[in-house]
Automatic annotation (TrEMBL):
<dbReference type="Pfam" id="PF12146">
    <property type="entry name" value="Hydrolase_4"/>
</dbReference>
<dbReference type="GO" id="GO:0005789">
    <property type="term" value="C:endoplasmic reticulum membrane"/>
</dbReference>
<dbReference type="GO" id="GO:0047372">
    <property type="term" value="F:monoacylglycerol lipase activity"/>
</dbReference>
<dbReference type="GO" id="GO:0006660">
    <property type="term" value="P:phosphatidylserine catabolic process"/>
</dbReference>
<dbReference type="InterPro" id="IPR022742">
    <property type="entry name" value="Hydrolase_4"/>
</dbReference>
<feature type="transmembrane region" description="Helical">
    <location>
        <begin position="46"/>
        <end position="73"/>
    </location>
</feature>
<keyword id="KW-1133">Transmembrane helix</keyword>
<keyword id="KW-0472">Membrane</keyword>
<dbReference type="GO" id="GO:0004622">
    <property type="term" value="F:phosphatidylcholine lysophospholipase activity"/>
</dbReference>
<keyword id="KW-0812">Transmembrane</keyword>
<dbReference type="InterPro" id="IPR029058">
    <property type="entry name" value="AB_hydrolase_fold"/>
</dbReference>
<feature type="compositionally biased region" description="Low complexity">
    <location>
        <begin position="24"/>
        <end position="36"/>
    </location>
</feature>
<dbReference type="GO" id="GO:0052651">
    <property type="term" value="P:monoacylglycerol catabolic process"/>
</dbReference>
<feature type="region of interest" description="Disordered">
    <location>
        <begin position="18"/>
        <end position="39"/>
    </location>
</feature>
<protein>
    <submittedName>
        <fullName>Monoacylglycerol lipase ABHD12</fullName>
    </submittedName>
</protein>
<feature type="domain" description="Serine aminopeptidase S33">
    <location>
        <begin position="158"/>
        <end position="286"/>
    </location>
</feature>
Amino acid sequence: TETTTVLCNIRSMPSIRCSRKPSTDSYTSVDSSNSSPKKRPMWQTILIIVGIVIFVLAFLIFLAIWVAVPIAFMQSISFQKFIIFINIDAPKDPDYNNPQKYGMESVVNFHITTQDLDNTTLVSIGSWMIVHEDEMDSFSSSTQSSDTASEIVTNTKKPVIIYMHGVACNRVKPLATYKVLRKFFLVIAPDHRGYGDSGLDADLSEDGIVSDTVQLYKWVRYKTSNMIYFWGHSLGSALATHAVKILKEQDGIIPTGLVLESPFTTMRDEMINHPLGKIYKWLAYFNQTILDPPERNGMLFLSTTNILYVDCPIMIMHAEDDNVIPYFLGKTLAEIAKSQRDLQTQGNVTYHQFPAVGYQHIGITDDPNVPQHITEFMQECVEADKGRG
């Protein structure tokens, strides 16, 4: 049949073998055991390591400055005293017995002995006595002794001023101020205990320095009936003010006048406004670790309170560009002394504010107007002294 014939023909056709080329799109199996991850470029690795190191160092610095230092300050009285008093020698290796080395003529280096607060221990206080320029011709620089100093203060016809220096300083440093003051006074410039060669074994404290200063004043008063003034610079302003208060409370003694150069109100206020204090004042534990510990240990320097007991005229001077104690603290102290004292019976308050011309913290006495300010202040003090009669 026809159908059978077709099937036979198909079967009789030669077989066709189909072959398939590999497709370029086919998947190729990957042996994962022979593959390796793509390596990070070297510069990326170095960058990551450097970043980690910087972070760790920054964290450690943060811990050291804003955690370790406040805690150490809170726990260590010695640390507190060093930061408050900064009793380092400036200049270094001073030659107290050779004032000519520093361009100072007619100066006597001497020591007086005071009783410590325990009334048994003795403290040696090193001082310079700078002769008034009108009496320099009668002075022999060959003699440097306490006897010479005693003789000079006994025989001088000039008023005496006790100069109290600030921190990071010994009695050699304020040379420019001495040269101004000696035009008006016989100058006595002691080093506070713990500074220079004074009381190196004595306990460094506000009360201790004030006690030494009171005894120095009495030593001068015993030698002369001339007028005696105080001049305090920076920390010395707080010490001088405190000493004047103690003289009045203990013995009813009133100095002729008190000059405060670049003063502050209280140590607490000074620490808050000092450049170093500003680094820490944002801390939540600033009061507990920085401000409170010195107060607990007697480092108060409460000039805002002590000045209320001063019964002599006061002159305060401050520079607007003071980079250590902001001038508004000196201005505030002057305002307190004016408003909270009886000016008629306790003495007037004069405030001089110097423009920002480069005097900063230690250069006020370079101002050409200072001699006139001193002259006018001395006249005011003489009149007030007559009134006390």
